[in-house]
UniProtKB/TrEMBL annotation, chain A:
The chain crosses the membrane at residues 39-57, 69-88, 100-133, 145-166, 220-242, 274-294, 306-339, 351-371. The keyword Transmembrane applies. It comes from the Bacteria. It is a multi-pass membrane protein. It is found in: Cell membrane. It comes from Microvirga terricola. Keywords: Cell inner membrane, Cell membrane, Membrane, Sugar transport, Transmembrane, Transmembrane helix, Transport. This is Xylose transport system permease protein XylH. Part of the binding-protein-dependent transport system for D-xylose. Probably responsible for the translocation of the substrate across the membrane.
UniProtKB/TrEMBL annotation, chain B:
This is Sugar ABC transporter ATP-binding protein. It comes from Microvirga terricola. Pfam families: ABC_tran (PF00005). The keyword Nucleotide-binding applies. Belongs to the ABC transporter superfamily. InterPro entries: AAA+_ATPase, ABC_carbohydrate_import_ATPase, ABC_transporter-like_ATP-bd, ABC_transporter-like_CS, P-loop_NTPase. The lineage of its organism: Bacteria, Pseudomonadati, Pseudomonadota, Alphaproteobacteria, Hyphomicrobiales.
């Protein structure tokens, strides 16, 4: 009985082979594609593009039109990618919209009230945001409360602090002006505001590859830096998620925190780090938009937390964690930008946007659940 | 090394949770190449014992010796580093993650220099396929989610992972309780294979037949205490069953119900 191989004359491995489930698990090409979490977002993007090609004014798909679409998509996308990583890690952050307003306030205060140089102000803003994100994370981990509730509290706390702080800093106004004048000029500012690749675009205009005004300047003078940040962040997040140890830990923490812990994954550290990352992403969006506008106000980032989560879900993230993609959130944010801006190029009332958004979310969730069950064998 | 020093030994383990005494003096030892079965009904303290051994709980008192050396585990990581790997019944694998990602979870091999350090997934995939083939599971695509594997295969992946990462002692928490007949025999055969490699196995179960199929020695746990340890030659399967039921005559119950229990 103890030594099975003597009885049957096979090695245990052969024995196991024999009793193994003989139903094949051949992986078809379709299954392989379906297994990618970003499939839904990519399909959605194609559908939305086809819709607008059919209905919208052709100027939507010129270079200038694309920049119009990508600018709001970039601001949302930076938040959405961070939200996606956090969701894959099994948590939510409902405070990112308020964090944009709060980070805008402290960034403006560092420039105007304390008169720090831009580089220091940016670094300090990111540090404060990271600390607040870390606080969120530690509260969630230590209290074991759902992150939904903890960060909902911070949604209101940070929005309220932004209002109170703005009034205190400006002597009663909910808007802080003159930030642009205090930011100075130089390479730091160029990294966070204005356009990138201007030389390339001038050259392209000179070569008649892109549209230009009669005086020779291109109609689009460059790529807004927020779009560059958006693309770089998407690439970096995707690489981290798919190729690094931290990425595997993020999937594991969200997939099953207990199993991950038992395998030696530092789940608490991973989650805290992700909360810090989302807060820093919100601060980055605040810095980019505040420098662009030259001012900040208390309504900045309003409801962005929902839009970011919607973009992440459209991008294939499961609400239960452990599954999703950063590049999916990238596409999700572009869908968002395309629909919100694109409707103004059509004869439809642009208020259809919200209807479209809700429908898209519902479709995405249903699609994601279907795919998950189909591909990962969950029963 | 002295052959007679047990691979792992624990003496008089006591664990209290507030006023609840979960373990009141449990002693057990496992030798190389031995399957020690830990039997006990629900509430006997099996789970607490496993969690104490794997570093999740700290014992209130008692000693743990690995290769004759005193050890204190403060986290699951400590126990893993000491060569004690625990395979939990349902917490072993993450269904949404691929076989490879599960296999190397928490111990991913990296290459390159920071900040470009990344996981060597080609190596991981190759190792996963190879290790799975060794136990007779042909994972055609190591990227397939663990959720697509059967329960028996999942347990085997979890055990293979522990063995690959150099476990000396395997603690298996009810590896067969949720499985069908064919899958159970797959897992039991693999346990047999692991033993022949010289590892010590602590096999926790409440199924006497599964235990008797692969066990060398049997320890019965009841209400936080060990009722005794028996070599296979010293005890018959019925006696073991009776002992586990807390001395209650199962035979009597069996006739009362007019059939098998």
């Amino acid at each position: 009985m103890t030594d099975i191989s003597h009885v049957t004359g096979h090695t245990p491995a052969e024995e196991i082979k024999k009793i193994q489930d003989e139903r094949l698990k051949e992986v078809s090409f379709i299954t392989k594609i379906m297994r990618r979490p970003e499939l839904g977002a990519l399909a959605g993007l194609v559908l939305v593009t086809i819709f607008f090609i059919a209905t919208a004014d052709p100027s939507m798909f010129t270079l200038a039109g694309m920049m119009n679409i990508l600018s709001p998509a970039a601001q949302l996308g930076i938040l959405a990618i961070a939200a996606a990583l956090l969701m894959i890690g099994g948590e939510f952050d409902l405070s990112i919209g308020s964090m944009v307003a709060f980070a805008g306030l402290i960034f403006g205060s560092f420039l105007i009230l304390t008169g720090w140089p831009l580089l220091i102000a940016i670094a300090a803003t990111l540090v404060v945001a990271a600390l607040l994100g870390g606080l969120n994370g530690q509260l969630v981990i230590r209290t074991k409360l759902p992150s939904f509730i903890v960060t909902l509290a911070f949604l209101f706390i940070l929005r309220g602090l932004s209002l109170v702080g703005l009034k205190w800093a400006t002597g009663g106004s909910t808007q802080m002006r003159g930030i642009g004048d205090n930011a100075g000029e130089g390479w730091v500012r160029e990294m966070f505001s204005g356009n990138a690749l201007e030389a390339l675009f001038s050259w392209l205009a000179a070569q008649n590859i892109i549209a230009k005004f009669p005086n020779g300047t291109p109609t689009v003078t460059g790529v807004p830096v927020s779009i560059v940040w958006f693309i770089l962040f998407a690439i970096a997040a995707t690489w981290v998620l798919l190729r690094t140890r931290a990425g595997n830990w993020i999937f594991a923490s969200g997939g099953d925190a207990n199993a991950a812990r038992n395998s030696g994954v530092p789940v608490d550290r991973v989650k805290t780090g992700l909360f810090m990352l989302t807060a820093c992403a919100a601060a980055l969006v605040a810095i980019l938009t505040v420098l662009d506008a030259g001012s900040t106000d208390s309504r900045r980032g309003f409801q962005k937390e929902f839009e970011a989560i919607i973009a992440a879900v459209i991008g294939g993230c499961l609400l239960t964690g452990g599954y999703g993609s950063a590049i999916g959130a990238f596409f999700g944010a572009i869908i968002f930008g395309m629909v919100s801006i694109g409707l103004t190029y059509t004869r439809f009332d642009s208020d259809w946007f919200q209807v479209f958004l809700g429908a898209m979310l519902l479709l995405a969730v249903l699609f994601n659940n279907f795919i998950r069950r189909k591909v990962t064998g969950e029963r | 090394m002295d052959k007679n020093v047990p691979l792992i030994e624990f003496r008089d383990l006591v664990k209290h949770f507030g006023s609840v005494i979960a373990l009141s003096g449990v002693s057990l030892s496992v030798q190389r190449g031995e399957v020690m079965c830990l039997l006990g009904d629900n509430g006997a303290g099996k789970s607490t014992l496993i969690k104490t051994l794997s570093g999740v709980h700290r014992p209130t008192s008692g000693e743990v010796l690995v290769d004759g050396h005193h050890m204190t585990f403060t986290s699951p990581r400590d126990a893993l580093d000491a060569g004690i790997a625990t395979v939990y019944q349902d917490l072993a694998m993450i269904p949404l993650m691929s076989v490879t990602r599960n296999f190397f979870m928490g111990r991913e091999p990296v290459k390159g220099i920071w900040p470009f350090r990344n996981v060597d997934f080609d190596h991981c995939d190759a190792v996963t396929r190879e290790e799975m083939l060794k136990i007779g599971i042909d994972v055609r695509d190591p990227h397939q989610a663990v959720g697509t594997l059967s329960g028996g295969e999942r347990q085997c992946v979890a055990i293979a992972r522990a063995v690959y990462f150099g476990a000396k002692v395997l603690i298996l928490d009810e590896p067969t309780s949720a499985l069908g007949v064919a899958q159970t025999s797959m897992v039991l055969k693999y346990i047999h294979q692991v033993r022949s490699k010289g590892l010590g196995v602590i096999f926790i179960t409440h199924n006497v037949r599964h235990a008797y199929a692969v066990g060398d020695r049997f320890t019965v746990l009841n209400r936080g205490k060990t009722l005794g340890t028996y070599a296979k030659s010293d005890i018959a399967i019925d006696e073991l069953q009776n002992l586990m039921a807390g001395g209650k005559e199962l035979q009597a119950l069996s006739s009362e119900l007019g059939g098998m229990v």
